[in-house]
């Protein structure tokens, strides 16, 4: 008979060591992420089978105004075995613990893939006027594990959060990823990854090289230059930028956890900063996290050059996947978000759908009031 699972708080070093012993986990589930999200109360939890630590989670508690009740949030987590038929044995002790901590609801994002589409399929979908959403395109692959997780969550009373154009309440449900290993798990060569890109991407990488674009890794002192370009990008592309202090905190926290956890990349042309990015890696998974580009000198293709430098670094580091993060589900050629999808599709990777974010109301009355509060905030 299998020893039942128990759950209790664990230390940051225990949490870190467990993740280091796995192929990978989301950077949002590392103990360092708690320091980045200082406005939330954070706790590391561990699942034990006997004395063996078999799963971990980073819980972020957001307090409701005026009452000591919390939304307990596990972004892109927890880090458990999602492949089995009895998720309740994992989730029940977690919910019980979080309830005792004052949680009125639990929100989590199972790191489980449900469907995949090839770059060719996405490209054809954008070109086809009858196709409006990625879900209208038959996928390259449907994951049985993903279907099993979703079925079990429904049975256990969890509620899937509506994804606005592919972005659920917190993290993106649809990502674009470039596999860095082949179907047998063998590392792909730089040449092979380059050949997988479309002609425009290959031409732009070549053009950047010929134009004399130089890509280097920066340090903490270069965050100010990155941030200035990022604010410029935010004004041009109409989004609200994060403050410099956010990136400094993020850089310090992630770097302290692992010297190659976070990297700052800078693309310069004749001394001018034309593109800058932040990459994050946990084990075999590398992410493109933030990017900025100048409106001037777009013709030297700094954005393509810096992406290619990050991919090559991820390959050298033994990563299995290069993750360009979120895309929306829209494939409508008239939608302004399509330009971002087309940029990412050019890398020749795959569109990947995750299970999305799920809520379990513990106190239904407070949860309902919380949803109304969020709806009013817009």
UniProtKB/TrEMBL annotation:
Key words of the record: Acyltransferase, Cell shape, Cell wall biogenesis/degradation, Peptidoglycan synthesis, Transferase
PROSITE patterns: FEMABX
InterPro entries: Acyl_CoA_acyltransferase (IPR016181), FEMABX (IPR003447), PG_Glycine_Bridge_Synth (IPR050644)
Residues that span the membrane, as ranges: none
Domain of life per record: Bacteria
UniProt keyword Cell wall biogenesis/degradation present: yes
Keyword Transmembrane: no
Family per similarity comment: Belongs to the FemABX family.
Identification of the protein by name: Aminoacyltransferase
Organism (species): Nocardioides potassii
